[in-house]
Amino acid sequence: MIEPHAPAPPAPAPPFSGPARLPVRPGTGRYLVLAGAFVCAACGLVYELELVALASYLMGDSVTQASVVLSVMVFAMGIGSLAAKRLRRHAAIGFGAIEAVLALVGGCSAMALYAVFAWTGDWGGMWADGPRCLLVVFSLAMGLLIGAEVPLLMELIQRIRRQDAGGAVADLFAADYVGALVGGLAFPFLLLPLLGQLTGALLTGAVNAVAGGGLVLGLFRRDLTPRGRWLLLVANVAVLGLLASLAALVGDFERAARQAVYGGDVRVALRTGEQEVVLTGGTGGRPLRLFLDGRLRAGGRDERRYHEALVHPAMAGPHARVLILGGGDGLAAREVLRHPGVERVDVVEPDPAVVRLARGDPALARLNAHVYDDPRVRVGTADAFRRLREAAPAAYDVVIEDLPDPDVTSSTKLYALEFYGLARRAMAPGGRLVVHAGPVSSRPRVFWTVESTVRAAGLRTVPYRVTGRESGPAGASRALQDWGFVLAARTAPSLGLDPRTPRPRTLTPTSLTAAARAAARTRVLRLPPSTLVHPRYTG
Question: Which positions, given as ranges, span the membrane (predicted)?
Fold first, then answer.
C-alpha cells in the first residue's frame, strides 16, 4: 500500500530505451542491421519455398500445398508481429533468440518431413493426417518467428539513430524485399540443383544462425548482460553444431529413407532438373520398377497389363504414324512396335534422364525390348503441349498420352480442353487418341472430368477400366489398383484389338467389353471440361 506522502511509482519505461552502445559508427551500424535483415529475409523465403517443394513432391498437387503453406505462414507472420511487441524492450536478445530457433526449425524441417514420409508410409494412407498436420505446424512455427523479426529489427535500427517512422520502414522493408528476391532465386537455381532439399535447408539454417547471432553478439553485445551473451553464444553454437552434424549424415539418411520408401534394392537414384528418378530391382529375379517423384511409373507385375491396355485398343485402326506423349521408358513404344505396318513412332519425353535410363540400363532396356535401337523410333525431349502446337495437321494416325495422373498439378495442362484440341488437329481423319486418365475407383470424378474434356474437344469417346495388383515399394500394402483410359476419335471408336497383331497376353475382346462396362458403372454425370484458365483436377 502506498503511503499518502510517498513518492509516486515511476512510469513504465517506453519501449525505446535510448541509443545503443555500438562498437562502430551509427552509419555502419545501420548498414549492418539492414544487411542482417537482407540475409534473414532471404533465409525466410527459402524456408517457405522448401516447404512448398517438399510437400508438393511428397503429397502432389502443388497448388494446394503452396496455398496451405503460404496462407498459414502469412497468417502466422501477423501473429508473430503482434507477439513481438512484448519483446521490444529486449530487442537485441529477443532477435538473437528468435533467429537461433528459426535456424533450427527451418534447417531441420525438410529432414523431419521426409523422415515422417519415409517411415510412416504413404501420405495418402492411414498416416495422412499426421504428416499434413506436421506441415501446418512447421508453417505456423516459421511464420511466427519470421513475423517477429521486423518489429525487433525496427526497434534495433531506431536505437542506432532515431528517424521518422516512414523512413525507417522504407529502409527496412527495402532490405527485406530484396533479400526475399535473392532467396527466391537462389532456391530453384542454386540450392535445389546443387545441394538438394535436405542439405540446402540445413545450409540455409546455418546462414540464418550466423547472420542473426553475429548481428546481435557483434553489434549489440554491450546491450546484453554477460549471462545473456553467454546463453546466446551457446545456443547458436549448439544450433550450428546440430545442423553441421545432420549435414554430415544427409547421405546416410537419404539412403536409409530411400530404402524405407522403395525397398532395399534401389539401383539408380538421381535428381534431374525435372524430377527424382529411382530404379529398383531388375536383377536377381526381382521385378524392375521405375519411380518418378515417388510414384510408380513402370515395372512390377502389372507393367504389361497397363501398357497393353493403353496401346492395343488405340492401334486397332490405321497406325502407320504414332505419337507417344510421355512414355520415355520405351514400354509403350514396345507395344506399338508389335503391330505390323508401323512406319514411324515419335516419343516425346520431357526428361532426358528417363530416356538415358531406358537406353542404357540393361534391365530397363531388356524390358522395353531395346526399342530405341529401332530406326522407326524417334525420341525428342520436349514439353508435350509445345510439341502438339508445333505438329502439322493430320500428322499422326494414333496419339498415345502416357503421362502422370491428371490431378498432379504439373500435368494438369496436358489434360485440358486446349490440349485435346491440339491433339485433335494433329490426328488424321481416321486417327485415334488414347488417354491414361488415372485410377477410376479412388478418383472417379477426375477420370470422368478427363472424359468430359475430351468430348468437349469434339471427339467421341469410349472409356474403359482395367484392374491389376499394385506393385508399390517394399513394405507398402498390396492393394487392388485400377487404371482408367479414354479412347477417342472423330467418329465413335470401337473398343477392340487388331486381328493382325499377336494376341496381347492380358487382353481379349471379352475383357475389353467388361472393361468398358466397369468404367460405365462409375460414371459421374454433367461434369464441366477442364481448361487452362479453369483447371478442375486439383483441389
Answer: 31-57, 63-84, 91-114, 134-157, 169-192, 198-218, 230-250
CATH (one of 1.20.1250, 1.10.1760, 1.10.10, 1.10.150) for 26-255: 1.20.1250
Known binder of ligand: residue 373?
no
Asked if residues 107 and 201 have their Cβ atoms less than 8 Å apart, the reply is: yes
**CATH match of 298-520 with 3.40.50.150:** yes
Choice among 223, 346, 361, 402 that is catalytic: 402
Contact call for residues 156 and 18 (beta carbons, < 8 A):
no
User: Does the annotation count 402 as an active-site position?
Assistant: yes
Do 354 and 276 meet the contact criterion of CB atoms below 8 Å apart?
no
Where exactly does CATH 1.20.1250 map onto the chain?
Answer: 26-255
65 is in an annotated binding site: no
164 is annotated as contributing to ligand binding: no
What tens digit of pLDDT does each residue of 348-372 get? 998 898 999 999 999 999 999 999 9
Give the helix ranges, DSSP H, for 352-497. 352-360, 362-367, 384-390, 417-426, 444-456
For 34-87, the pLDDT digits (tens) are 999 999 999 999 999 998 888 777 766 667 778 888 899 999 999 999 999 888
* Integer Cα distance of 267 and 278 in angstroms: 8
Tell me the pLDDT band of 4, cut-offs 50, 70 and 90: very low
440, containing H or E segment? none
